[in-house]
Amino acid sequence: MAVIALGLTQIIGYGTLYYSFSVLAPAMGREFGISTEWMFAAFSVSLLVSGLSAPWIGAWIDRAGAGRVMTVGSLVATLALATAALAGNSILLVLGLIAIQIASALVQYTSSFTLLVQINPARAQRTITQLTLIAGFSSTLFWPFTSWLHDRLDWHQVYWLFAALHLFLCFPVHAWLMVRTRTDVGRRSDLDPAVPSRPPLIGVIEASARPRAFALMLVGFAIQSFVTSTFLVHMLPMLTGLGLAKASVLVASVFGPAQVLSRFTNMMFAGKLSQRTLAIIASVFLPLATGILLLTAPNLAGAFAFAIVFGLSSGLSSIVQGTLPLELFGSDGYGKRLGRLTSVRLVVSSAAPFAFALMTERLGYPAALTIIAALSTLAVFAFLAIGSPVNPRRKTH
């Protein structure tokens, strides 16, 4: 039940706080006389601030419990969206976008993954996969839903509606989870003596090898996040620029089901492959997807193939971002470790929307996609360099 409830809030969280921006950004820019490139630059700044706050948020999650942090985060998301909706000038809009991304760090995967680890470390790999399976519908639902809303409402009104979703749906769910799961760290047994403390999960990487393995993991995930952020934020304008304007929303809608398919397949074959192997597979799909789009555009079948392969990559990547640190390093300090990982990913990927917009403006889409393909290949080598885990089967003590 906790996974289903979390899945609902993740669909709303990612849909309203992240995916909706690319649909609403052109209208925001027109209202305040800001070019599309500078709108994405503002979005990049908001991702950067969110990334810088992630280590502090991760430590707070370990200390206070993920349920409490997500409950507060729902209120922050409500206020952030309301601030953006009220914006009467570009400065207030940028401040609202920054607040929205800080709220994202409080309510999205870093917090929800840690909540599942805090509930039961031994089952966390499976429950994280189940959660991402549900959350994978976010883009499929919110890209067309936001477009449909924007045909009938201005972007201010759309943000007001999204703020209401966080206040009246996400906040009660997170508050219920906070109470029901007793996630206050260090006080689980005190809150309910009938509920035993869960033993921590031991990582499979020896202590002496952990700094190198963690650095390589950071590099791999940072590159993946840069490329993924590029495509997610630019999906609709990129497809339009490649001659697929009429089918861009339809093509983009395939991305979500492909995510779900990869997560469902992984769930069905759970335990067959190590999380490091899944990370390598996810990273291989990125240059493959980019190459398909580069070689086939504006062919519609090629665009669908790109969206499917990219969705498979994103679906697996979102899982292993939570499960690979758990497998390699264990559950002790998981929230803080995931916060550091999220920080590096967001700081690096914060440059992606503006950098890709600048590349396409100066170089055109073929050259920009070639650069993306080369960059994404480096992630494959980073995960390969981690080496095989000492023991691919998790142990508890």
Report what the structure shows:
The chain has 397 residues and is mainly alpha-helical. Helices cover 81% and strands 1% of the residues. It has a two-stranded antiparallel sheet. The C terminus is likely disordered.
Secondary-structure blueprint:
Layout: H1 2-32, H2 36-64, H3 66-86, H4 90-107, H5 109-119, H6 124-135, H7 137-152, H8 155-181, H9 188-191, E1 201-202, H10 210-241, H11 248-268, H12 275-296, H13 300-329, H14 334-349, H15 352-363, H16 365-385, E2 395-396
Helix content: over 70%
Shape: globular
Main pleated-sheet profile? 2 strands, antiparallel
* Radius of gyration, CA atoms, in whole angstroms: 20 Å
- The helix-strand sequence is HHHHHHHHHEHHHHHHHE
Strand pairing plus helix content: what structural class?
mainly alpha
Strand order of the largest sheet: 1-2
Low-confidence stretches: 183-196, 391-397
What distance separates the N and C termini? Answer: 27 Å
Number of helices, counting only DSSP H or I runs of 4 residues or more: 16
Strand count? 2
Range of strand content: under 5%
Average residue pLDDT: 85
Describe this protein with a few key phrases.
globular; 397 residues; disordered C terminus; mainly alpha; two-stranded antiparallel ribbon; 16 helices; 2 strands; 81% helix
